[in-house]
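just leaving the lab so this will be short. what follows is a protein written twice so to speak, once as letters and once as structure tokens for the fold. can you read through it and tell me how you think this chain folds. anything you notice is useful, everything is just below:
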Amino acid sequence: MIIHLKPNLPATEVATLAHSLEAMHYHNGTHAILITPSAVKEIPALVADLNDGYWAMDSDIQLASIKYQADLRTIKWGNVAIGGTTKNTVVIAGPCSVESWEQITQSAEMLKALGINTLRAGCYKPRTSPYSFQGLGLEGLKMLAKVREQYGLQIITEVKDSSHVQEVIDYADIVQVGAKAMYDQSILKACGKARKPVLLKRGFGTTLQEFVQAAEFILSAGNEQVILCERGIRTFETKTRFTFDLCGAAYLKYHTNLPVILDPSHAMGYAYGVPDLAKASVAFGCDGLLIEVHPNPKVAKSDASQQLDHATFTQLHGEMKLIAQAVGRQLV
């Protein structure tokens, strides 16, 4: 159950009430909000003189549910806004990893030429093998900070584990929680305390219920700027890296109030299929796309097989603009 307490209620009274109801609570700038694990019959009567509305929910999908907030949340960073009534589809592109200053500036120059404002690149890489490139770490974050200053781009980069979550929060404009980190509650809670947009990727063996419950950890800690990202799930199929679950994305789009971004690069795993999936994603009406692009994918230190080269991505970007216009959206 979600309870909005009346404005200007003293913090001590909020804390006392939350304790008595065994509820989580935060303040959204207008109301103190209590979230209880279930609907308890005594709650409405108990807070009759204090509440400014309450919602009894039928699952642990609460703050993200359209039953609580029917309107899609608006998420903003820099000059970009998605969700709400914007009809914007944001393009977030860049290499899998920061590898060198030359590589990341070439990427930035390509994005600026296309009018794209958000650069993605990883500095801490959660690799399956301990012998694979693990990222440049703090050195990479500092490069991204220089790129932001020099090119005016907004930066999204990934948290791998709790040892560097604060570094990423400090340096990034959008914090990405990857598929392998989605279950790490220490990361989710740290992101909940941050006041920056968080892009949460679905784990490749995660149900939709579990996925949105992970988002609830961030929301219930007070950060209402959460974006969901579908990046493919593991099925019996072996010819692609993962299976791109547009059915799941449709569920998220119609049952949650959080913007949904699609990641065709990680779903397909092979560059030849990424443009078709990206165009299908725009037609789907998603709030954004996450696409891996590298100046020279053949020498990429991670995910070489799925990254587009700059010429292919430039052509794709023009095609996506036309599709976006056809479905009443705008590529930003």
